[in-house]
Amino acid sequence: MDTPLVSVVIPCYNMEPYLAQTLDSVIGQTYKNLEIIVVDDGSKDGTTDVARDYEKRDPRVKLLVQANKGASAARNHGLDHAKGKYIALTDGDDWWAPAKIEKHVAHLENDPGVGCSYSATQFVSLDGRLLHCRFPKTQNLSDYYLYCRNPITNGSTPVFRREVFDEHRFDEDKPRNNDVDCWLRICFTPPRKWKLEGINEALTFYRVTPGSLSDKLDKHYDACLHTWRKSYQYAPDIAKKFAKLAEAFQLRNYARRAFSMRQAADCRRFMWQAMKTDMRMFLYEPLMTAATLAAALLVPLVPGGKKKS
Predict the structure, then answer these.
(1) Which pTM was predicted?
(2) How confident is the model over 235-278, as pLDDT tens digits?
(3) CA-to-CA distance for 89 and 36, rounded, in angstroms?
(4) Contact call for residues 281 and 245 (beta carbons, < 8 A)
(5) 95 in Cβ contact with 111 (< 8 Å)
(6) With contact defined as beta carbons under 8 Å apart, do 273 and 258 qualify?
(7) 69, 79, 95, 230: most buried by Cβ count inside 10 Å?
(8) Which residues are CB-neighbours of 256 under 8 A, at least 6 positions away?
């Protein structure tokens, strides 16, 4: 197989505790023809020092430093310097299985119509415990699935053809959810030239960081609303059909996260809001939706369930 250059773009902000693991996983890939672009987005810790140490040790590593502008600006800055035929993204606190790039390159080389190759994701707690895996569908993705279910899952799974980013970049106007906004524009902007396909293996390890659940999810929800409203500009027919359904699924997902943290009030609040938004989620995913509704009803009875004081 030919070994085209792959550019790996790693946006970082205050990732000193985690960046070495990320870089070790990239440097240790079985696929060696890489350029590794670390973009430090104005970190206030030792992120720059970690990246600079790797830059000295491996000629494939290049450090770019910018004033703090957010993850989208950092990704775009890295894309401006990327020279590879393919471009892989990962955040500075996640890591990859050793054969990830090799498998994605083979996938992309095999089908020129695939603009993005993604993988399943293994979620990991901050202390290193394996949590759950997400295995999205990988082929023949419907408009419903592309719009409502985000098969790429997160910003550390995808590998793109360079031409995709000649046409689309990350929106720097909003601080959250700009990866999903970018994926939707790639999928639905006319003439819709790029397919998304996946590899049914957990090749990405995604670190779940703690935080104030209610505040964090409410801010993320506002960003999602902006993304769906924006989609009316470039895919009005798709947005009219699926924007409310996507919103309902997102609220349902928040309810499930609240249940996993035994936060009863948030779990009920998100699930009731999901049902008011679009009841079609019971038609598209009846089992998962019914299970989440049951969880919202039962979470106050679960040991450790927290009612609002």
Answers:
(1) 0.92
(2) 999 999 999 999 999 999 999 988 877 788 889 999 999 999 99
(3) 10
(4) yes
(5) no
(6) no
(7) 95
(8) 292, 295
